[in-house]
Design a protein that fits this description.
The chain has helices at about 10-25, 70-85, 105-120, 130-140, 180-190, 210-225, 240-245, 260-265, 265-275, 285-290, 300-315, 340-345, 350-355, and strands at about 60-65, 95-100, 125-130, 150-155, 175, 200-205, 225-230, 255, 280, 295-300, 325-330, 330-335, 355-360. By secondary structure, the chain is α/β, with parallel strands linked by helices. The protein folds into 2 domains: about 60-180 and about 300-330, Response regulator (Rossmann fold); about 180-300 and about 330-360, 3-Layer(aba) Sandwich (Rossmann fold), CATH 3.40.50. α2 (about 70-85) packs parallel to α11, α3 crosses α4 (about 130-140) and α7 (about 240-245) runs parallel beside α9.
């Protein structure tokens, strides 16, 4: 049986349906392409350490160093001070300039040196010896902002008018006190010769530290029943005559403490001692190298080290001079010269030899 054609309206409906399906397939959204690189880099940890900074360069400073005379003991203190500065990072010729002033034994010249340092505008004044400290203090005390001062080799800053107590001193000045072991020196005298009865003592009354020591020496001698014969000098040219006058008084031993004037010319004392067979004991350590028999004294290098550490801390900005106590050197040394002792008519006891530093040439 012959099939009947589909009605026209059914054909039109079918065509419209197919067109709609085809249109839907062709307009379907294509999938988004995946990028070849990651969409974001991984976040860095928030606590990652900062890159190390280059160390800051140390500031440069200028120091004025003044000394009463070219005495080996004082030079030893100054060198120890400079070595301590270098160990703390302040090296001369690199970040440190040192202007040196030596009064050659003339106390008045110290005032000129101190004024020079002020005119130069130094950052710090370092003094070696009591007269140098006094001159620096006098030169700076009327300044609106005094230049800071650190002193070394000052025997008695209180008798010298520099301070009244370790914690009571000018706000711009402090340092290390090098007081000699006077009692230990008398003990050593009697150890050298128990029969000593007359001591010949030399000093310069213009040096405040020597005056203070001499008063203490007088008291110790009196307490021990010893006679103290005294000769004074005002400069090194008078030392030989003063020593000869003491020898003529029948003394058993020569003695002088930390007196800058006598120390600067102590060769004259050695000569008189050798000529008269009278031994020398002193608190001036370098005199032993010149021929003195025995020295008992506060350590020179320790004095420079103590003051040097103060200076390093000050330059670092961690030390306030106004609140820093004056520090007494607590290390003592014994020195002997056996050849000098023999020339002066004495044989040193083994007990002293065993504990002393031998400077026999």
């Amino acid at each position: 049986m012959k099939k009947k054609p589909l009605p026209l309206f059914l054909i039109i409906v079918a065509l419209l349906f197919l067109a709609a399906c085809g249109s839907s397939a062709t307009t379907e959204t294509a999938p988004t392409a995946v990028p070849n690189t990651p969409t974001a880099a991984p976040a860095e940890p928030t606590d990652a350490p900062e890159p190390a900074e280059e160390p800051a360069e140390m500031e440069e400073f200028t120091i004025g160093m003044m000394v009463i005379a070219p005495i080996p003991a004082l030079e030893t203190v100054q060198q120890s001070f400079i070595d301590t500065l270098a160990a703390g990072g302040y090296v001369e010729g690199e970040n440190l300039t040192i202007i040196r002033g030596n009064a050659e034994g003339d106390i008045a010249t110290l005032n000129t040196i101190a004024q020079q340092f002020i005119d130069e505008g130094v950052d710090l004044i370092v003094t070696t010896s009591t007269p140098a400290a006094q001159a620096a203090l006098n030169a700076t005390k009327d300044m609106p902002q005094p230049i800071p001062i650190i002193f070394t080799t000052v025997t008695d800053p209180y008798a010298a008018g520099i301070a009244t107590a370790p914690d009571d001193h000018p706000a711009w000045m402090t340092g290390s006190q090098m007081y000699p072991p006077l009692e230990a020196t008398f003990d050593t005298m009697l150890e050298m010769n128990p029969d000593i009865s007359v001591i010949g003592h030399l000093y310069n009354p213009a040096e405040a530290n020597s005056v203070a020591q001499t008063e203490a020496v007088k008291a110790i001698a009196e307490e021990r029943g010893l006679t103290l014969e005294i000769a004074t000098v005002s400069n090194s040219s008078e030392i030989r005559t003063a020593a000869e006058s003491l020898a003529a008084r029948g003394i058993d031993i020569f003695y002088f403490t930390q007196d800058s004037t006598v120390a600067s010319g102590s060769e004259a004392v050695v000569q008189v001692a050798n000529d008269n067979g009278i031994p020398i004991i002193t608190n001036d350590i370098p005199t032993v190298a010149k021929g003195g028999a025995v020295a008992v004294g506060a350590s020179l290098r320790e004095d420079g080290r103590v003051a040097g550490e103060m200076a390093v801390a000050f330059l670092n900005g961690t030390l306030d001079i106004a609140t820093t106590d004056i520090e007494r050197v607590g290390v003592f040394d014994y020195f002997i010269n056996r050849a000098g002792a023999a020339a002066q008519g004495i044989e040193l006891p083994q007990s002293l030899i065993d504990r002393a530093i031998d400077q026999t040439p």
